[in-house]
Design brief:
The complex is a heterodimer of chains A (about 425) and B (about 80). With about 425 residues, chain A is of the alpha/beta class. Chain A has helices spanning about 30-40, 130, 155-175, 235, 255-260, 260-270, 290-305, 320-335; strands spanning about 1-10, 10-15, 20, 25-30, 45-50, 55-65, 70-75, 90-100, 100-105, 120-125, 140-150, 185-190, 200-205, 215-220, 220, 230, 240-245, 275-285, 310-315, 340-345, 365-370, 375-380, 385, 390-395, 400-405, 410. In chain A, the strands form seven sheets. In chain A, strands 5, 6, 9, 10, 11 and 23 form a six-stranded mixed sheet that branches. The chains are: A alpha/beta (about 425), B alpha/beta (about 80).
Chain lengths: ~425, ~80
């Protein structure tokens, strides 16, 4: 499997009356895109906005972010199983508009009122401390502002938001057809050097199998309780992984994160130089019994052994008890002789004095921290709002206090800021020891 | 919570499906629970078997309360009460 990813960097986005990419300028036909979105009767209102780094803007109601991509050769199309049929992807050539995202924002009440199934949305500031707290503060964004029809089920809301978002992203990327890219990266794992160590990425995935959408999907199929499997990293680059588009949460990777998985890209960069990258083990975590957690840990480690791994990076997404599955996986790998490094965010509480992790095993002797998700964040008053909400709930429980979105906001954790938690080590952090 | 209650002089039996986490935070009397959403029973069992399982777990917890322990100790209910 060999994928060429051709890069078309975007420095400026313009809303106009045509579709065009030229020298870093992306122009999109706003009315045509709005008309396309509104063809879905579940979406009552739709409009578009452009924001850029440094704008005195706060985006509200964020559900998901995606990088525009389109396949120009090879099997299938981007977002397989969602925008088109289930066809194996990861081969051929794909175009990407880098430096920008399509942001899906939507006003949606939801029918679930409490618990993990409740709809949530996040914020993004384009200036000040809020922008500095998220990797998305430095990118340009084409923002879809949608209002969903009242009374939609969670599944209808998800599919409506996601289809609008992905269609707009693919349409934007189609402006690059026939244009010369600024660079092309080749992603090919077929040649291994026997003298180098074999390294696998084990990606733990919390999913809620009792919800309509479990949280993470593969070729459009929500991942429920299942044993571990092997995914080719090129499938991620062709957008085979996506998320529940009714829940934008800072500590939950979004579609953009799967397309730009920093550990996948990092291992790819070192492939054939320092190591042989074997691929990604996708491991469903959050088993509800300790027995289940032990089994899934053994299962992922066994798969790593079968693939011939000498080393493993273990990382995860989610929160809470799923981390027990993760630590048991580190232990299971180490006990089978695989050198294992854990990559995780920390808790630590608002002031950084609480326990940083939920659970420990002595075998976890190499851990990379990607920073704390718990630190306070003060967002100053902002000049302009973009998005469906002028008032936001800072916490998600029913009846939680509502604040003016434009005003000064005190967040006691990073959950409300999209990209506010660095799940997989995309960013560089400075650590101070006191 | 169990540690704070014990500091106040009340013995505590902590029923938990994540008993290794309970051991890690050094709870003294830990009773192995069924599952995170339902530590004290199993709603997938027929009602009469679930009742037997719940009774077994509570009785194990009561035995744990009576036991002298020095540090985290795991008490395991007989989960195969269907026989």
């Amino acid at each position: 499997m060999r994928l060429e990813l051709a890069d078309f960097p975007v420095k400026e986005i313009r809303l106009g009356r045509t579709f065009r990419y030229q020298d870093g300028l992306l122009e999109v036909d706003g009315p045509a895109l709005e008309e396309m979105i509104l063809r879905d009767g579940r979406i009552a209102e739709a409009s578009l906005a452009v924001v850029r780094p440094g704008d005195k803007v706060r985006i509200t109601g964020i559900r998901d972010l995606v990088e525009p991509r389109v396949k120009v050769s090879g099997n299938g199309q981007v977002f397989p199983g969602i925008l088109g049929p289930v066809e194996a992807v990861g081969d051929g050539r794909t175009h990407r508009l880098s430096g920008m995202t399509v942001v899906a924002t939507a006003a949606y009440e939801g029918t679930v009122r409490a618990g993990l199934g409740v709809q949530r949305s996040a914020l993004l500031d384009m200036c000040g401390p809020g922008a500095a707290a998220s990797k998305f503060g430095a990118l340009a964004h084409l923002v879809l502002i949608m209002k969903l029809r009242d009374g939609l089920s969670e599944l209808d809301a998800h599919t409506a938001i996601q289809a609008a978002e992905f269609q707009v992203a693919r349409r934007a990327a189609e402006t690059t057809l026939g244009v010369e890219p600024s660079g092309v990266e080749v992603y090919d794992l077929s040649v291994r050097r026997p003298e180098l160590p074999n390294v696998v990425l084990i990606q733990g995935c919390l999913t809620d199998d009792h919800h309509v959408h479990s949280g993470v999907s593969y070729y459009g199929l929500p991942i429920r309780e299942s044993l571990s499997t092997v995914v080719h990293p090129n499938e991620l680059l062709d957008c085979a992984m996506a998320v529940n588009a009714t829940r934008g949460i800072g500590y939950f990777p979004i579609t953009w994160d799967w397309q730009n998985h920093p550990l996948v890209l990092g291992l790819y960069r070192d492939h054939g130089r320092r190591l042989n990258f074997l691929g990604m083990i996708l491991q469903r975590i959050r088993y509800e019994t300790f027995h289940g957690k032990e089994v899934i840990a053994q299962n992922a480690a066994q798969l790593a052994v079968t693939l011939g791994a000498d080393g493993a990076l273990v990382t995860w997404l989610g929160s809470g008890n799923a981390f027990v599955d993760v630590m048991l996986t580190v232990r299971a790998c180490e006990r089978r002789g695989i050198d294992t490094v854990l990559v995780t965010y920390e808790y630590g509480g608002k002031d950084g004095v609480d326990s940083p992790l939920l659970f420990y095993v002595p075998e976890a002797d190499a851990v990379v921290s990607t920073g704390s998700r718990d630190r306070w964040l003060e967002l100053p008053e902002i000049e302009r709002l973009v998005g469906p909400y002028e008032r936001v709930q800072i916490l998600s429980y029913p009846g939680a206090p509502v604040a003016e979105a434009k005003g000064r906001l005190t967040l006691d954790a990073r959950d409300m800021v999209i990209g506010g938690v660095d799940n997989w080590g995309k960013e560089s952090w400075l650590c101070n020891a006191y | 919570m169990s540690k704070e209650l014990e500091k106040a002089g009340l013995p505590v039996a902590l029923v938990s499906a994540m008993y290794p986490v309970a051991e890690q935070v050094r709870a003294n009397r830990i009773v192995k629970g069924v599952s995170i959403p339902h530590p004290c029973g199993d709603p997938s069992l027929p009602p009469e078997l679930d009742a037997r399982l719940r009774r077994e777990i509570v009785q194990t917890a009561l035995k744990a309360l009576e036991a002298e322990v020095k540090g985290p100790t795991l008490f395991t209910p007989n989960m195969t009460v269907s026989g």
